[in-house]
Amino acid sequence: MQLQERVLDYMENKASRPVSEEDIATGLQLNNEELIQLFTVLDNLELQGLIVRNRNDLCGIPSQMNLVIGRLSMNSKGFGFIIPDDPVEAEKGDVFIPPTLLSCAMNNDKVIARLNESTLSGRSREGEIIRILEHSNSQIVGTFEKSTSFGFVTPDDKKLTQDIFIHKRNFNGASVGTKVVVQITRWPKKRQNPEGKIIKILGNINDPGIDILSVVHQYELPLDFPDEVKCAAQKIPLAVSEKDCKKRTDRRMLTVVTVDGEDAKDLDDGVYAKKLDNGNFFLGVYIADVSHYVRENSPLDLEARKRGTSVYLADRVIPMLPTRLSNGICSLNAGEDRLSMAAEMELDINGSIVSYEILPTVIHVYKRLTYDIVNEILVDKNTETTKNNEDILPLLNTLLEVRNILKKRRNTRGSIDFSIPEIKVKLDEKGTPVALLKRMGSLGESIIEECMLAANETVAKHMFMKKTPFIYRIHEQPDKEKIDALNELLSAFGLHINKNTETASIEPKSIQQVLAKVVGEKEEKIISSVALRTMQQARYCDENFGHFGLAAEYYTHFTSPIRRYPDLIVHRLLTEILPTGKISASRTEQLKKLLPEIALSSSVRERIAADAERDTIDMKKIEYMTRFVGDEFQGVISSVTSFGIFVELDNGVEGLIHVSSMANDYYEYVEKEYALIGRRTNTIYKLGDIVEVILMRADVKERMIDFVLKDNGVYNDIKHKTEKTGTSGSKSVKNNKKNIGHGQHKNNSGNITAHGHGIKKRKRKPIRK
């Protein structure tokens, strides 16, 4: 056992109180060499947050000292939550931190918090930050403002609630209204803002493309590959050689097809299916064998591990691998030989996998299809499209049968499907949004989804049975308190999510059954929204805990190695184990140390990518809506808070109706009912209600949209913004309807200007030293 493990074991299981270094040395009977190492070991454990030193320099385990260590997730309103690092603590839930007890910590800082008694009923854990272990915001993107002697940068990230103070000597040529990158030179202290210096000027906030570029820098996304990686990519061949094919199973005779979006260029997966003589089905899923070209610890591999995933922003893709690989030799382009890792499965009419084989293959994609083409053939029965694809009609019909069988099996075991539309922003050549396109999952997408799910489960089960180190995609049980809150809501509709009487856990099928009962009912929106919020976030892990949402005992990500690093690792592990069925003891020990780090890093990178993608889409949504200020819309209440209600339009745009703009009454927030209720009128606005609203503000700079209620809003009869003020809006107002993407709206008779929340905002000024 390593010294670090021995120290932790001693402190967790043998020490009954905080201990000194001498106590540890004596308790473990350390020799001279180990004594020298002890001080470094304790420093490392403290940096990792596994131990804490108190004021008397005694060491203790955080959980035994009423402390929690984790990352701070801030809310734009000024409070935060600590997400614990320790899995045991994480199961108990996040820790709420009030604004007054943040101790100058910033969003995503690693901190230590002392647990306090909760001041609010229904909140299980509350605390105060007592130490910052690691700052995480060394560079911040924001908008620069200045006076004669100092300046400040207002962060784009609304979770960073303090402006950054800039000395005049650190302006570095920045002018008012420019988007900049600032490096922190002094962290915030009590009554003092953080200080920094401008290290990069991105451009004026109104310059084309600056909005997306700001997000790229905010999340520190790489815009280019290092020279070493580019050089390595250039050495990768452009075509498959016969030498590469020799030790692979030849599947070039199969009519493998790819099915992707119209604009996809990195094609990871191909599929093939046929009906067998015994009544079963053969399903082959063929995935680009990226691991053949990206070798472990090579420059390409290390860069891919660092990036973790490709990032799909509103106007560009930041790939995990250089284009020569992602769009070239690794992409399953039609008419080209390609190396693949295959999961070939035989499934019966109930969808059970009765046999399978995982093997390296060489394929020759017969045809590239799109979701639209598949839908035109199988759903719309388009005559021309069908005629143009007569050669693959038997294959598509077989794939449809396979999809139906697999989906039915998944539904039977309790898999939960949330029908969430995807909103795509259509941009012109200048990057200006011209339409919001709402996409629901289609049959073509569902066919590929079911094939990929089957392959992912098969690979995960295969590796689990081999008892070898592996990376799983896990989705854990919902938080108990969130399920209890959901049940409170469901009780109003005569519904309930049942728990297992023995384990007190819930089964996915319980949630699935509740959702099925409200399909098409007026309460469907509210129940689906709250149910979705009870779900935990899926993540990567080196241990198998199953996937709750899919009701799957084993699950991994195997099908997208071009754009996800965990999939690449899965392929690499399969390649290692396939020849002999096992991995050496030394390699096993190496993987046990390596895979937890990769799983954690990949999960973090995935969340960063998702946040960046969402931010760019939201920005373009707001920019698109600036032309409709003053117009009426119908929307659904998507969230209710103490300060107001959020309303989502049919085109996916969401905005706030601040409680201060609701003119006919004083409104109180009733958390258990997800509602604001008027004291005098008893008017109720609750989650899922349909309301008529007027768009009062679409502020790209502040990334905010404000609505007021049409029949209960504070607004005056003032004109739309004119071209002179440089703001979008109609010059004349007519009482007619227009189609804006997917939302219907009409101009209000008379011109409108907001009088309430959010129309004018006082500029924040930094606290002077």
TrEMBL record:
It is found in: Cytoplasm. Residues 630-710 form the S1 motif domain. One of its GO terms (molecular function) is hydrolase activity. Keywords: Cytoplasm, Exonuclease, Hydrolase, Nuclease, RNA-binding. It comes from the Bacteria. Residues 720-769 are annotated as: Disordered. Residues 734-745, 757-769 have a biased composition (Basic residues). Its main location: cytoplasm. It catalyses: Exonucleolytic cleavage in the 3'- to 5'-direction to yield nucleoside 5'-phosphates. Gene3D superfamilies: Nucleic acid-binding proteins. 3'-5' exoribonuclease that releases 5'-nucleoside monophosphates and is involved in maturation of structured RNAs. HAMAP family: RNase_R (MF_01895). Belongs to the RNR ribonuclease family. RNase R subfamily. PANTHER family: DIS3-LIKE EXONUCLEASE 2, RIBONUCLEASE. This is Ribonuclease R. It comes from Pectinatus haikarae. The gene is rnr.
